[in-house]
C-alpha cells in the first residue's frame, strides 16, 4: 500500500520531533510503502529508518512559482468561498483576506506538487497528513482529481484551536473539514472542539493520541533540600513562561531552606526576553538558580531525565493538545504541573501532579510547586506518573494502533480502486502549471 506522509519539514529541521517515535512503527508493517513528503527541506535531514523513502517534490517551491499561484488563487472558487465565510463571520479585514489568499495559493501549489509526484510514482493509496493544514487540503484536492484514494489527517493544537491564531482565524478549514476519510484527534476534548467549532462529523473523527517510549529506568529525585524543576517548550507568548519565573520567585521566597533550580529547554523568539526576566526577578534570591539550554534534539531531552535528577515538570501554556513534552517527563517518573487546557487533564491529575486552572496565577503555580515539593508521598506520585504513560500513552500501543487504523482505511476496496485511480492518472496526463481550480 502506497502511503504518502505529508509533513511540514520532517525529516528536516526544525520541529516534528515526535514523528521520530512514530515512524518506527510504519516500518514494522510490510504492507506499507511509506514516502515522506515535507513541504520545507533545508539543511541536513535527520536519519530515517530503513524502508522509509523521502521525496522533495512538495518542497520545490520557487519565488516565481509562488507569485503565479497567488494569481491563480485570486480567481479561484476556493478563495471566493473563503471571502464569503469571512463576511458572514464578520472577520473580514486586510489581514484575514491576505491570509486567506496566501493559504489558498499554498494549497493550489501543493496540490500541483502532488500531481507531479503521482505522475512520476503512481497513485497514492493513502495520503497521511501529519497536520490539518494546507498540505492536507492539497491532498483533498488531489483526491478529487483521482490521484489519491484516501486522505487521513492528524490534528494537534496550532492547527486546531482558533484562539492560537491572529484574529481567531483558521484559513480554509471549514471548506475541507468534511472531505477527509478520517481525522485523528488527540483527545475527546479535541474531537468535541472539531464538531462544535467547525462542524466536523463526530463519526468521522477518531481519538488517536500520540505516545512516547517507556525508558527502562526512571529519573532520580534530588537530594533532600534540593528541588529541580524542568520546563520544555518553544518560547512564545502562548506558553506564558513569565508566570513560571514569577511563581518560582514566590516559592523560593517562602522556602529559604530549599535550593531550587529551574531548567528550561527550548528556543524561540522570546528566549532572550524570558532569560532577561529571570535574571532581573531572581537576582538577590540566594536559593534559586536557572539555566536555559536552548533547542535540544528530542533524543537528548529523553536522556536528560535519565541522567539528571528531576523533581517536577511544569507547563503553563494557555493552549495545548496533549503535550508530548509532559508525556516524556512522566514516562521517566517525573510528576507534572500543568493547566487544564486542551487534553492535559487526560495526563495530569492529583494522582501524578497538580492540574491547575485554565489561567493560573503565579501564586497558584507557586502553591502547586509547594504541594508537590513537600508532598509526603513523592515516590508514589513518581510511580503514578509513569503508570499513566504505561496505561494510555505508550508509543508501542498508540502508534501500532494508529498504523493499523490507517492501513485499514486504505485497504477498503483497495485493488478495485487502485485500478480505477491508475486509469485516472493515465487519462489526466502530465500536470501543467495552470489549471481550472474553480472545479474545487
Q: Residue share in helices? A: 40-55%
Which structural class do you get from the secondary structure elements?
alpha/beta
Kindly report the name of the CATH homologous superfamily of the largest domain: Glycogen Phosphorylase B
Count of the domains: 2
Q: How many H/I helices?
A: 15
Organism: Dyella lipolytica
InterPro entries: Glyco_trans_1 (IPR001296), Glyco_trans_4-like_N (IPR028098)
Domain Glycosyltransferase subfamily 4-like N-terminal: 123-213
Protein name: Glycosyltransferase
Record keyword descriptors for this entry.
440 residues, alpha/beta, Rossmann fold, seven-stranded parallel sheet, six-stranded parallel sheet, globular, disordered C terminus
Written account of the structure:
The protein has 440 residues and is α/β, with parallel strands linked by helices. The protein has 2 domains: 2-211 and 396-439, Glycogen Phosphorylase B (Rossmann fold, 3-Layer(aba) Sandwich); 226-392, Rossmann fold, CATH 3.40.50.2000. The chain is 43% helix and 15% strand. It is built from 15 helices and 13 strands. The protein has helices spanning 19-27, 63-74, 77-88, 94-121, 134-144, 173-176, 188-198, 241-254, 271-282, 298-307, 324-331, 362-373, 378-392, 395-411, 414-428; strands at residues 2-7, 33-38, 53-54, 124-129, 148-155, 182-185, 205-207, 226-232, 259-265, 288-294, 312-314, 336-339, 353-356. The strands form 2 sheets. It has a 7-stranded parallel sheet with strand order 3-2-1-4-5-6-7, with helices on both faces. Strand 8 (226-232), helix 8 (241-254) and strand 9 form a beta-alpha-beta unit. It is globular. It comes from Dyella lipolytica.
